[in-house]
Every structure is written in C-alpha cells, then in structure tokens.
Amino acid sequence: MEGDDLPSxxxxxxxxxxxxxxxxxxxxxxxxxxxxxLVFAERLHAAVIFQLVSAAYAVVEVVFLxxxxxxxxxxxxxxxxxxxxxxxxxxxxxxxxxxxxSKVLQPKAMGRIAHMxxxxxxxxxxxxxVLVTLVGWVRVCMAPIALxxxxxxxxxxxxxxxxxxxxxxVWYGFVYAMVLVLPYFxxxxxxxxxxxxxxxxxxxxxxxxxxTEHRWGKEPxxxxxYQHTAMGIIWWCGGLLGMFLSRGxxxxxxxxxxxxxxxWAMSEHVQMLQVSTKVHAxxxxxxxxxxxxxxxxxxxxxxxxxxxxxxxxxxQYLPSFCLVESGVLFMGANEEQLELVLRLHADHSSxxxxxxxxxxxxxxxxxxxxxxxxxxxLTSNINLSSYAALEREADAREFELDDIxx
Length: 406
Description:
Number of domains: 2
C-alpha cells in the first residue's frame, strides 16, 4: 500500500492543542457568526454581548496562547491572522456599542464615529460582523496548518491556492443556500437573475486566472500552467455567454455548466501521490454533480421560474451542499495533508468520508444560521394589530352566540 514505508506521526500535547482548537472554533467562528445573525436581525444587545466575548477571547489568545508546531513555533501567517481577528473584533465592538445606543463610550472617545449617521453606523457594523466571521473562518482553517507545520517553503503557493479556491466554493455554497432559504431572495422580483451575477463573477475570476497563473513571456510553460490558464479561459468565455443569456432576468444553464467542466478538469488532474489523484477525482465528481443538479433544478423543477411559491423541495438543497462539499474536499487536497493521511496508514476512502462529514457539519451550521435569522425576523415583524383584530373577531362571535342562546 502507498505510504507503508513512511514513519507514523508523533503528536505532542495532542489533548491540549485539540481543546485549544475547539475553543477557537467556538469563539472565533461560531459565536461571531451567531452575533452577525443577531446584528442583521437587529437584536443588538445580545449581539454586543457575544461580540465582546469573542473579542476578549481573541485578546487572550494573541497574548497568552498559540498554535505551535512540533518545534514549538507558530507560523507568521497564523499569528498574523489571530492579530487581525483581534483588531477587527475590537473595532466591531466599538461600532456595536454605538449602534446599540450604549452610553459606555463617551463621544470624545469615539472620535469620528460619534458624528456618523445612524444608517452609516448600521451598515459599517453589519459589514464588520460579516468580515469578522470570514477572518474567523481563516483563523480556524489556519490553526491545523500551523500545528502540523504545513505550507512552508515550496508548499506555500499550493496551500494558498487550495485554501482560497476551496473557501470560495464553500462560501458560494452558502450564498446558494441563502438565496434558496430566505424568502426575501427566493421570491425576489429583481430585474436580474442569480445566474447573471454568477456569470459576472465567473467572468471576472476567469480573466484574473488567465493572466496570473502564468507569467506570460517571462517563463516557460509547464503542465500546471496549462491546466489553470485553460480553466481561466473557459470561465471568462462562458461567463460572457452566461451574462448574455441571463439578461432581462432570465435563468441560464451556463454557470452550472462551467461547474461541470471545472469538476471534470479537476478529476482528470494527475497528482504525484495516488491518494491525491483520487481525492482530486472525488472533488471533481462532487462538483460535476452539483452543476448537473443545478441545471435540473432550473430547467426541469422550476421551469425557468425563480422559485416554487411558498415551497422548498428537498432536492433543491443538493446543489448548494455539493458546492460546500467540493470546497472542503479541495481545501483538504494539498500535498502535505495527504502525506499525513499516508503516514497515518489510512486510505483515500477513509479520508474522504471524514472530510465529507465535516462538509455535513458546515452545511448544518449554515442552515442553522439561516433558520435563526428567519425566526428572529419573523418574531420582530409580527403585527400586533393583527392580534387585536383576531380578538375583536372572537368577541363578535361570542356576542352572536349569546344572542342565539337568548
């Protein structure tokens, strides 16, 4: 079996490091995401408390804790991410206090923030709440890399590529889920369809990828340059077609078809390690499945409509989940992580199962956040006059029954 001659890893302080990572997961990702939902639902006092707790933990972590590798050193990127999260959390708390109307900070201490309008403060606070969650995601993903001493020297570029592209798929899966679950987006009468924005984003990404994956005219072409540049070309070409076909609010198959071609290309990438080739192949299969399901949803289930009024079919959750799973698989497909799998004497199927389990948990987390937002906004939007009307109607019925009895 591949990797049988590799030495088994020798973990040090595994229990304490695992506990530290779980605390970081809870207090720098899950708690900020919940507080972000509370901010958007205008439950500001609870959001302020959660953001204060998260900021306090960030300070403690930066000052007293770290994610050291086997040599007792935490890489600069992980450390820098922790400092960035701490600073952004502190700024978010300041805007949270102003937004909630708290008198804790004096106007002189707030400086220019005190002179900002209420609408501007609300927008900045919401934007910071989202950004803090995204930085928390990076922090949680960087911690295991720092602990294992991955992504140094020649491996840095590959790690960055896998992390950025994988995270992009995960978070675009969240966008798909949000548009599906929240009635504001699902039943929107916006003049442009979602596929128009998908196509625009793919076109822009394709242009960037085409001209950044290879230093044109300055270095010879290699196998990887051809693969990534070709992927950029098909994305901007397909993106332009998708923008044209989705004009006037029409639905389009093009973004989903681009996912299918991307998945097929990734499944055909031959890697140095057999386990890496198989994990990349699974990533491609899942991405192709997500694209095919998206076309089926648009063309056959919805028949080019925006949604089924008042209903969400269970089938409709599949495309967004496939995006999340493919993103997690790609994030976990870099060379050093898969070498660790071999050193643990595991195979690709076991690794894929564990990673897919993580994708299930991430998708559950996303849906719970959306469910929480719906419940909070539904409660806050209840019209009290409707209760008064129901009460009057009940009184009228009782009056009529009394007349009949007499």
